[in-house]
Amino acid sequence: MASRFATDLKWSDITPKEVFLNRRQLIAGAGALAATGLGAGMAEARLKTVPGKYSTSEKPNTLTEITNYNNFYEFGLDKTDPARNAHTLTTDPWSIKIDGMVDKPGTYGLDDLLKGVTLEERIYRFRCVEAWSMVIPWDGFPLSALLNRVGVQSGAKYVAFRTLLRPSEMPGQRSRILDWPYREGLRLDEAMHPLTILATGIYGEPMPKQDGAPIRLVVPWKYGFKSIKSIVHISLTDRQPETTWNMQNPREYGFYSNVNPQVDHPRWSQKSERRIGGGLFAKRVDTLMFNGYGDQVAGLYKGMDLKKHY
Ligand SMILES: Nc1nc2c(c(=O)[nH]1)N[C@H]1C(S)=C(S)[C@@H](COP(=O)(O)O)O[C@H]1N2
Ligand SMILES: [Mo]
């Protein structure tokens, strides 16, 4: 990948918890809610956010860190480009086309998709293939809830995702650094796993545009590039879908891309990672198999050679 290990930032010293609690109090106030200008569905969904049982107790990164050190090549290659450029993206109205091997295909508006959905807080470790990591408090809901609602047909084996293609608002798409639109995919059992979520917010706020507004995938045991942003298309299929980084460089980026300290990237070690935050110095920590989610997900890969299926 181009521009891996990019620029350093000036980190904020705000305690994430304090900010978090303040925001929550704000959200509880009716006036604040009206002031957000969110659609009714979104506001209602936010009020219903409940703590999830799958969260790590590790200290989350600050919102400043999470929104100023990003990979979103539609808005540029540098870590600070998305924060600078993503504000031009129109995210309302937004809809997702769901098709392929489903009982109820269609184009679903975001409000419709979120109707009756209970958003959970999921504080997940997030590990980029470039060997940096964060802890991010997502708000979202299991992808399985959506898939169950549209009815997955019996022959379906994979789920394919696509990001919005809109070069007028996504300057990165005007150059051919990747084969646009950005594409990702999961095996159906991975997609149905309770840890796999569609996230619509961070720290109780609507998803920042640089993080994949208004809705993105989060698969915490896989390298970050599997967690595709700003999704407009979900398709159920019986064939392993094409995925962007695998198409770009199949030797370096596999379809599975489970976090695995035993399988190095051809150009760097995956044994440890740089945890973003904590002042100017990011500390190095050991990388955990399946990013620490092995108890929950190792069973999905029983009998598979993970060196071969990297
Ligand atoms: N559409 C799209 N999704 C994407 C990317 C991208 O460039 N385009 N980058 C991926 C990579 S490499 C990572 S590490 C994460 C970064 O998510 P974050 O910026 O919210 O931390 O988004 C992933 N999803
Ligand atoms: Mo990444």
Automatic annotation (TrEMBL):
InterPro entries: MsrP, OxRdtase_Mopterin-bd_dom, OxRdtase_Mopterin-bd_sf, TAT_signal
Entry EC number(s): 1.8.5.-
KW Oxidoreductase (keyword) present: yes
Segment forming the signal sequence: none
Positions bound to Mo-molybdopterin: 70, 73-74, 128, 163, 216, 227-229
Catalytic activity as recorded in UniProt: L-methionyl-[protein] + a quinone + H2O = L-methionyl-(R)-S-oxide-[protein] + a quinol; L-methionyl-[protein] + a quinone + H2O = L-methionyl-(S)-S-oxide-[protein] + a quinol
Oxidoreductase molybdopterin-binding domain boundaries: 90-245
Post-translational modification as stated in the protein's UniProt record: Predicted to be exported by the Tat system. The position of the signal peptide cleavage has not been experimentally proven.
Keywords: Metal-binding, Molybdenum, Oxidoreductase, Signal
Keyword Oxidoreductase: yes
Cofactor note: Binds 1 Mo-molybdopterin (Mo-MPT) cofactor per subunit.
One term of GO molecular function: oxidoreductase activity
Gene3D superfamilies: Oxidoreductase, molybdopterin-binding domain
Cofactor field: Mo-molybdopterin
Family note: Belongs to the MsrP family.
Complex formation: Heterodimer of a catalytic subunit (MsrP) and a heme-binding subunit (MsrQ).
Function statement: Part of the MsrPQ system that repairs oxidized periplasmic proteins containing methionine sulfoxide residues (Met-O), using respiratory chain electrons. Thus protects these proteins from oxidative-stress damage caused by reactive species of oxygen and chlorine generated by the host defense mechanisms. MsrPQ is essential for the maintenance of envelope integrity under bleach stress, rescuing a wide series of structurally unrelated periplasmic proteins from methionine oxidation.
Protein's name according to its UniProt entry: Protein-methionine-sulfoxide reductase catalytic subunit MsrP
